[in-house]
Structure prediction request, 720 residues.
Amino acid sequence: MLLESIILKNFRQYYQEQKIDFSTSSSRNVTVIHGENGAGKTALLNAFSWCLYGKMDLPNSNNIINEHAIEQLSENEETECSVTLKFWDNDKKYTLVRKIKAVKQNNEIIYYEPEVKLSYKIDGQYEEIENPSVEINRILPENLRTYFFFDGERIDNLSKEESSEDIKNAIKNIMGLEILERSIHHTESARKRFLNELKKFGDPKTVDLIERIQQLEEEREYLEQEKQVNLKNLKAIDHQIKEIELTLKKIEGAKQLQEQRDRKNEELIQIREQINKVRKDLQEYMSKYGHLAFAYSAVKKSEEILFDQTKSSINIITGITKGFIDELLEKKRCICGAHLLEGSGSYENIKNIRESIAPQSLDNAISNFKGDLKIVKHMRKSLFDKLRDLKSQELVLLQKEKRLIEEIEEIGFQLTKKDSEEIVGLETKRQQLLQQKSNIDREIGKLEGEIDRVIKEIREKELERSKLDIMAAKAQLTQKRIDVCQELIHIMKEIYSVREKNVRHKLQDRISSIFSQFLRKEYKVRLLDSYELQVVNQNNNIVALSQGERQITSLSFIGAIVDIAREQHKKENSNAFEEGGIFPIVMDSPFGALDSDHRERIAKGIYKLADQVIVIVSTSQWRGEVESQMAHVIGKEYILKYNDPRKNKERPYEYTEIVEVK
Amino acid sequence: MSIEKEQVQSILEKLSEEKILILREILQEEKNLLHRKNLQGTNIVNTIVDIIKERVTE
Prediction:
């Protein structure tokens, strides 16, 4: 998406029509819009959100239509406010118009429902899109609007945990995972169609089985949905618990205990991680060497056979060769020096020994086997030593875990015994939430068990169905098509998982690199599974960020997303499922909370991350470091000119005019 | 070749050439739909069913 222009008509303080053409040049990709306090910078940023999603984060957000335009109305007269956004996406030029009308009746202003129209130009003709919100969300996901339309004065993006799942999906979409996701879903629907078709050709038993499979699949879908609902609830409860804990930290009487609890919780997380690691090691060790535990009787038996000739039924001699005996017999002298007379008892004895000598290959094999037996015995001993060691580590950790849980419970108990009603109330609520959480946890476990059972039954029924060899030729063909669908779904899921991992790694690397360029301190940024960001210091402790640092973190995040999506989009020889895209970054007062060094760092790097950057900024934020870093990449420049009614006698009302700087 | 490409390649190796062709066609259709190169209201599931019917014939 590349923004071409925006036209504001009677939108908030923008009276009549005001237009901005954005720079679409690749070398001068920055459009700067200067505006002093109250000139309408934030209103301009909100014009984008309103036009695209019908959302506004402004005070008195119902008053969209310009005040003067409303005042000018006579009885039964209508006026309208609109925002028109023209943009390019994938070689198509779109025009999006959102407007709202108002009429004055009996001295009251009545607003109509807003209207939205999205069209695109194809072969010189404009075609209207029936579901504008779906299309807009595809082009620029609404969940990421606070990132693409960046309000430097309201940085709350990183703390919005409840929407992390939506953000995660939105990021995955713009990073090109959507095609695969949709393909999996639609091929699954195609498979179900074929399954239905199979019913037409099958015998009664096959039809019964298919119906049962369909029933089970519906049950599985229902259970999966239930599980998702529970997971969402779990997250919401976690969020509430965190909020309570934050509040407790702000109350003098509870602060110390809550901080203590935080530390213990942190410790508990680490202990649990260690327990998981030990258990994983145990599992891995057992799967690799576990067979040795059962090797005792085999080793013992082999030893008996090889080492104790009296118990052995095999009468063979190892360690000497037939050639050696032949030499003794030929020289007629034993190794003890005795003379071997042909036909004597000693001579015959030696001759008999020759018959019992193992062939060379068997001799080697026996000797190797003896060596292997020693190794097996040694490894078996090591296995038990290692298992003993891991088990005792696990036991120590479990004891630590138990102790920590008790200590955390004790803190909770102490908090409920406090004099303050507020503290007791909060702690009681917290404990109720913990109880709810554990109930939901149990419910999820139950659902997972049910899902496993259903999946198992589906497999059994599928197997049963595949064994029915009385299928008609037509049914066989349909079955083949079902199998192809299933195989493709499986392959697409595998590719999806590889790509998802890769996207996450790429994003983590890019954010880290941008973050280290933007931020002066040596902090590191981590991308969590939920696609939230966590900033840690040199000691790996999570840090509380200042507003400026949060601005930098947010900018690094969106910069990395836009940069990777662009890279993906421009990549040659990309796969069919690789997508990416071009996205703009629109920033209102991005430098407000930053010191001079950070301003310079951001200004130096941000315009390189996106094909289009729009900066809405006050003179004081612009002058100096920012201007010197960005002046050479400005393609278009505007001023938001505030009309002061006290000074302009011809037009004695408040409005903002957009003037291009040439 | 990047690691990801290698991984994807080794996953695709499990498929016969015919099935790779089907997969490619499905992904291409999804891509077209996403970019609305086709007419609005196209039923992608029907399209996938048709692709498979056309490619898996015996």
Summary: Chain B is about 70% helix and 0% strand. Chain B has a mean pLDDT of 82.
